[in-house]
Amino acid sequence: MIDNINEVNPNNVVKEIISYDDFAKLQIVIGTIISVEPVPDSNKLLKLMVDVGEEKPRQILSGIKKYFIDPQSLVGIKNPFLINLETKVIAGLESQGMILAASEGEAFALLNPSSPLNSGTPIR
Question: How far apart are CA 67 and CA 76, in angstroms?
Fold first, then answer.
């Protein structure tokens, strides 16, 4: 059992406490990456086309390029995606969501489900 928040959060960075209703506004689903392209003139960005269980794939830009020697290794990966995030134009391209991942220093991890799940499966 953790008795001190500093054990899990050594920088003691605590964001604003939100209500369950705030959390419930987030639409996080399992998505399957179906294609990956480097974004021209960017050292960080990858353009992911992601099946999130909708009629057509979503284009999601992510600054994860440095963590993958071969970005094509991401094709077929299932991971949580936030899909009701306001659309944003990055490097002249529209991003329609956000991939969820974790990092600490140089360590980086995608959050793959431990069991097979269909694209569009909600995270609760």
Answer: 17
26-110 topology per CATH: OB fold (Dihydrolipoamide Acetyltransferase, E2P) (2.40.50)
Query: Could you tell me if residue 72 is left (phi over 0), alpha (psi between -120 and 50 degrees) or otherwise beta?
Result: alpha
Domain boundaries, the chain: 26-110
Residues 6+ apart with CB under 8 A from 41: 91
State how far the alpha carbon of 61 is from the alpha carbons of 53, 88, 99, in Å: 18, 9, 8
Q: What is the pLDDT of residues 10-63, one digit of tens each?
A: 566 788 999 999 999 999 999 999 999 999 999 999 999 999 999 999 999 999
Give, in degrees to the nearest 5, the angle at Cα 83 between 118 and 23. 100
Whether the full predicted model's pTM is greater than 0.85, yes or no, is yes
Closest CA to 119 of 29, 49, 35: 29
